[in-house]
Model the fold of this input.
Amino acid sequence: MMILRHILQIYNHHRRILQVVLPVTGCLVIAAHVFLAIAYPKTAWCLFLSTIALSFAASGFVMGQALKEGEETDLVPGYRAYHMIGAFAVPAILILWAVALTALWRGPILLTLSSFLSMAVLSVWYGLYCLNGLLFRDNSGLVRYLSNDAKSWIIYYFIIWNIVMVQQHSNSMSGLLVSFALLGLFTCINVMTAWFGAYFLNNLSSFAGGTFILWILYDIFRISELSDVSSWIGGRHSIFKTTDNFGPIVFLLLALCAIILICSRYRKHIYIFEWEIFTYSADPYWRNYSFINYDGLKLPYMFSPESWQRDYAVCLWNRDKTHPRGVNKAEEIILTTNSRLRAGTKPTSVNQLLRFGLFSPVFAAGSDWIKFVVFGVVGTAMAFSYCLTRNAAAGVNFIFPGILFFSAAILANDFQGHRNRLPILYFQTASPSRAAFLNQSLRAYLWTVAIMSLRITVAALLLHPLISWFSKNILPTRKLSGELIAAAALFHWSWDGLAQMIVMGIALALGQVAASLFSGSRRAYAGGPGWLAINALLLVPIACIAYRYHSWQLSITSVLIAAALFLHARRNWLETELDFA
Amino acid sequence: MSHNIAELTNIRKRFNVRSVLMGLNLNVPAGTVLGLMGRNGAGKSTLIKCMLGLLKPDAGKATVFGEDAWNLSMAAKQRIGFVPQTMPGFRWMKAGTFLDYIGSYYQRWNREKAFTMMKEWGISAGMRISRMSEGEIQKLSIIRALVHEPGLLVFDEPVASLDPLARRDFLRQIVELGMDETRSMIFCSHIASDLERVASEIVIIKDGVVALRGELSTLQERIRRIRIQSNRILCPPIPVRNIIHSVVEGSTAEVTVEDVPDEEIMSLGEKLSARVTIESLNLEDIFMEVNR
Done:
């Protein structure tokens, strides 16, 4: 207790300094991590170190959140200490997570267990964090409080880590479960959405986007309203009485759909086959294999030579019986895959095959241009819709996670596509002859993670002052300038980002202009009902394009989001009407 | 003998090149309602923040309930209620949720009283703070500060945003709270009439120090305005001690003096061959005179 009190005192005295020092330390450690990743690529300590870096950053954010409420809250007894517990608990958990990650290198079972362990501890911590409110009178208030930025940041970090680290190291099953545990920290509704996102989009890169989209939906619909149980079980509130309730209703319906879909489509062996496929794809034996025909299909024409799907296809279609493990599994996979195609149809193209396949519905198929434009437009439109419906001054808080997810998506795609390998699998099946390749893969992997971390940090540091500057000097509306800055930041990521920016910029500009023409009044302001409605309209063709060229999952998601935006626009409109009145 | 709830000794605070508090001394005895006045930038808010440990003074010592203000214990914080000029954060919360949330930190939080006050002041518990007017937010802030029955209540411009009804209601509550001799209050406001109504002592801050302090009646006895009407042209300076301010125009003069006996004032009539009248000042006038 003495130690804790001492720490409290130190914290209390130096909190403002710590708020700066901790994130800066985090950045420095990230820099050290970059260096180590280059110098010593094969060590798991890089992961450990970077996780600690994140923990510092997260700690700073928690403190920052507490400080954001104003210095007068210093006078609320226990307020600072309470947040300090959070600020110290987060790094503690993250370090535990880092330990777990380090342990991951021994194999997938340990991975899953350690992931669960970490998540379980995180859940306990989260529970304890909420306990203060629970013991007193207002748990819902606290939960709502935590739904503010601090929680978002922590969760974003965890999601990113989850995506980049865990899912890359494991099969989709454990990734899904970890995702499940991760997002299941909040409410059962969120758990459903996590599963909904993970299943519907069922791919680590699209999962990132999916999670973010769901996160947006979460906020748009104010799911926290559900904690106000009294309004749902009758009483003086009618469920249909206020427009606020439309959100939760829609969300419940979505969750119901997700459950139905999961129940109808869930197959235990899906993940086993996925794992096997990954294993095969990681095996150089298959890499050298020629493609073969299946029902007259010329498979080599269907795949990019640099794509990992080639291995999938080799694995899938190869009937060479000389491989000690390949034959039966390959046949089984073909059967399983075929059984999942539409009744009476045979694959007429590999894209179609993959579209109805078991995984990678979004990023595995389709050209780069299509997938980036479609996903880019949907993702960024959602991110900005979200951003613009909130306090513009705090917009950076909401734009940034969008960029974060984008980067994760691109990164994940990078691994799947251009890197052509999941390095950790090599590690797991490593033999001396593969050591060189392993090191090379690890180096690339860690380098990419490090660069991403660095870019994120730089973007965070740059975005906020830039937005302020733009809003004061260049553009009349703070919100629009925020969009453009974010677009520029996206551009930084890759040339694909340029395409995203153009499409997104056109969409946003059209949305803005159309909204102005549409109403010519206060309703036209960015984030207002007109703007939201236009954005929702823009999503309809996107949904069509997605269905035609890409995946029905993305298409449905677009439609759902469009519906959500319409509802939100309607509510916003009603509120504006009230304002006018 | 009453003890001091708060004490500030030789407090100095500087913001960059600007000195705000320059060796200020102030004590707040138990059972006192201290009305704090001063011009904009005189250092009232800085004084309050130093006193409550929200701002660290460059020099001097501040204590509250006998504890160092910068290291207040939980127990001491439990006994402080503070209404800042603008309520911090929490704009996304609903009023009721906000009070419950804050209340969860206090041992003696009177939830019933909080919600009763909300009802009386027309604040809906379900309304988000972000959608409230400034006045409503201020009401909420006041409720937050009052309902845990603090021993020291500090109000920094609390009524500026309140409508007349709420203001009257609030002042009534302050008067009631002021009846408790164990409780002290610091009431910082520019509205002199409010301070006249609630404050047992007035403190006027000027140039970073306490320029004037005392009970209102005492101050009114100490500081008075003399009107002089002579038959001849008057030449400054007017021959009287402790002049705070004087205006001489032809054969008339208006002089504000401090701590000058009636006899000395009346003797001016003979000295200047003039008619002399003594006027009592209200608090606003006193404030104006001190700050001229």
In short: The interface with chain A takes residues 49, 52-54, 71-72, 74-75, 77-78, 80, 82, 84, 87-90, 92-93, 97-98, 100-106, 111 of chain B (CB under 8 Å). The radius of gyration of chain B is 22 Å. The first helix of chain B runs from residue 44 to 52. The mean pLDDT of chain B is 84.
